[in-house]
């Protein structure tokens, strides 16, 4: 049942909300408390799509997300690369000199150390970025500001005292757009395929499993391992490769992978984000 909604985790104005606006501007964004709630909203039909962050260029993968993806029952239909631009947000009429403290998620505080030090502003930890902006708006204290996306300032009626104050100008978060149904019909200049697998319990199984991608010229852009069910002997791997399963070289590589794995689940086939293509050409 289509309802033209895309679910995300966090308060309105979060970077996940920004990702929804960027990737699906015609859809209504549905805020959810947890990643599990986002997934359940799509499963239950309360939303058509889920927007889930999977990794950040500075801080690595988002904790626990790789456990949730294969268990969600959802399929990846797109990826979205979102630049993390950070603004200093305060109640209307506040000057930068008035601000003494800035609240945000601890990760975002760590990305603005230079700016905070330069202006003598003390960072304090909030629940999350958009939640901090909401709290600043509710408190009405001109000495307290929030570090968040410009979108949060728009939503909560805050002034942007400074923009793009992050220490690194290339900080980017990768999101996955997920649906109840897979879409294998699309084709673009560059396609991505994501899957999870477990290797068989034989010597050099992972080495042999990876060999098919090398010999068939398939570029693997990500390979990560994580424990399954909290035991050290059960390891699952998550992988992203360039190409479509119907491409001859990808088909051959996946066939070879099958000989050395006890399970293989393709999570999605989708067009590469334009920023991925730009970075590859740089």
TrEMBL record:
Q: Which SUPFAM superfamilies match?
A: ACT-like (SSF55021), Periplasmic binding protein-like II (SSF53850)
Q: In which pathway does it act?
A: Amino-acid biosynthesis; L-phenylalanine biosynthesis; phenylpyruvate from prephenate: step 1/1
**Name this polypeptide is given:** prephenate dehydratase
Q: Which Pfam family would be a valid example here?
A: PDT
Q: Where is the Prephenate dehydratase domain?
A: 5-180
User: Which InterPro entries does this one have?
Assistant: ACT-like_dom_sf (IPR045865), ACT_dom (IPR002912), Chor_mutase/pphenate_deHydtase (IPR008242), Preph_deHydtase (IPR001086), Preph_deHydtase_CS (IPR018528)
| Main enzyme class | lyase
Tell me the leader sequence span: none
């Amino acid at each position: 049942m289509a309802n033209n909604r895309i679910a995300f985790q966090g308060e309105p104005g979060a970077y996940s909300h920004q990702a929804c606006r960027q990737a699906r501007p015609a859809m209504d964004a549905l805020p959810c408390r947890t990643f599990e709630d986002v997934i359940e909203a799509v499963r239950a039909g309360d939303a058509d799509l889920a927007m889930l962050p999977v990794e950040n260029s500075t801080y690595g993968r988002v904790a626990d997300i790789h456990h949730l993806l294969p268990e969600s029952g959802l399929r990846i239909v797109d990826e979205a690369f979102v630049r993390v631009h950070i603004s200093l947000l305060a109640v209307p009429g506040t000057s930068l000199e008035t601000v003494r403290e800035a609240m945000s998620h601890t990760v975002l505080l760590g990305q603005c150390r230079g700016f905070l030090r330069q202006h003598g502003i003390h960072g304090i930890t909030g629940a999350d970025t958009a939640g901090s902006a909401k709290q600043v708006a509710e408190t009405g204290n001109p000495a307290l500001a929030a570090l968040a996306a410009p979108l949060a300032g728009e939503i909560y009626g805050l002034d942007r005292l400074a923009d793009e104050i992050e220490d690194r100008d290339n900080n980017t978060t990768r999101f996955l757009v997920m649906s109840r149904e897979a879409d294998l019909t699309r084709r673009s200049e560059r396609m991505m395929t994501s899957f999870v697998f477990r290797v068989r319990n034989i010597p050099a199984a992972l080495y042999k499993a990876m060999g098919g991608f090398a010999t068939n010229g398939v570029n693997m852009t990500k390979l990560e391992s994580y424990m399954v069910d909290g035991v050290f002997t059960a390891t699952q791997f998550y992988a992203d490769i360039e190409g479509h399963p119907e491409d001859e070289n990808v088909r051959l590589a996946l066939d070879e992978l099958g000989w050395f794995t006890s399970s293989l689940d393709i999570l999605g086939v989708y067009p590469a984000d334009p920023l991925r293509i730009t970075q590859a050409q740089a």
